[in-house]
Amino acid sequence: MTLEINNVTKRFGSFHAVDHLTLQIPPGEMFGMLGANGAGKTTTFRMLLGLLQPSEGTITWAGEEITYQRTNVVGYLPEERGLYPKLKVKDQLIYLGRLKGMEKKSILIEMEKWLEKFKVPDYANKRIEELSKGNQQKIQFIASVIHRPELLILDEPFSGLDPVNVELLKEAVIELKQKGTTIVFSSHRMEHVEELCQHLCILHHGKLVVNGNLREIKRSFGKKNVVIQADYDLSSLANQVGVLKYHATAEGVRLQVQDEGVAKELFTHIAAKGYARKFEVEEPSLHDIFIEKVGTTYA
Ligand SMILES: Nc1ncnc2c1ncn2[C@@H]1O[C@H](COP(=O)(O)OP(=O)(O)OP(=O)(O)O)[C@@H](O)[C@H]1O
């Protein structure tokens, strides 16, 4: 059951929100979709769900086109949360679960399990409007997974959650992946994508600018980060050939260098100068790669 996005374009008038996008997401994958605001992530998700029709191209899940009628195989956590404030949690989940073709009894069984897992076992009879924003989000997440979808699409699942709830949600997502759910999620938080995804893509103005295995992406980027801590002045390193970025830190410097060769030269240079408490060569972070490819940073 592979998700295949074949040469998909979505135009609004003459504007290309998604531009000839081709992606294959294998079953059981946790796939990260990155992109600055307006890059086309939500538009892509809406097409995956059959809520929007591509202007060109096709999207298939397990070889069949996704239509709105088939969406009970898909779970969706939208970016704009959409619960009914006056409904009780229980009634809200029954309503949404039934739309996905579930029976009331199994909805209630699943609901209990999830409320327990999310450490809010007594919320079934609370009205949505009584819950904090983060807890409403947990309910919205439950609504997107209660029918055990094969494909789960999460638009910014961690936004607005405190660190404890981020961990709870991450654990839930990892567990779903282990059970075989294919998960596609967008996030502006690079560290979440680095932690959870082996594969990812970056969209820029609707086009794919990076796609592949995270480790491969980092390796092929070429540039490395070098962290040095020493008690003597390191500021001259800013002018060394091959040093692309220089940041002074509380205990030393953090550099971006052209390649591993430059890192080796720096090591020789530092070793000749005297004792350094730390000299570490790191792979670039996803943040570094994002900035380079998209040319902007997140707030
Ligand atoms: N219905 C629409 N009509 C016209 N333009 C639209 C419509 N929906 C989206 N767009 C435009 O398409 C582009 C992509 O929007 P989209 O919501 O997919 O971005 P995104 O990557 O999800 O951004 P964000 O990170 O801000 O959520 C934006 O420029 C947006 O204004």
TrEMBL record:
Q: Which InterPro entries match?
A: AAA+_ATPase, ABC_transporter-like_ATP-bd, ABC_transporter-like_CS, ABC_transporter_ATP-binding, DrrA1/2-like_C, P-loop_NTPase
> Quick check: keyword Transport in the entry?
yes
Segments forming domain ABC transporter: 3-230
A Pfam family annotated for this chain is: ABC_tran
Ribonucleoprotein as a keyword of this entry, yes or no, is no
Q: According to the lineage, what is the superkingdom?
A: Bacteria
Keyword annotations: ATP-binding, Nucleotide-binding, Transport
* Protein family: Belongs to the ABC transporter superfamily.
Q: What is this protein called?
A: ABC-2 type transport system ATP-binding protein
Organism (species): Halalkalibacter nanhaiisediminis
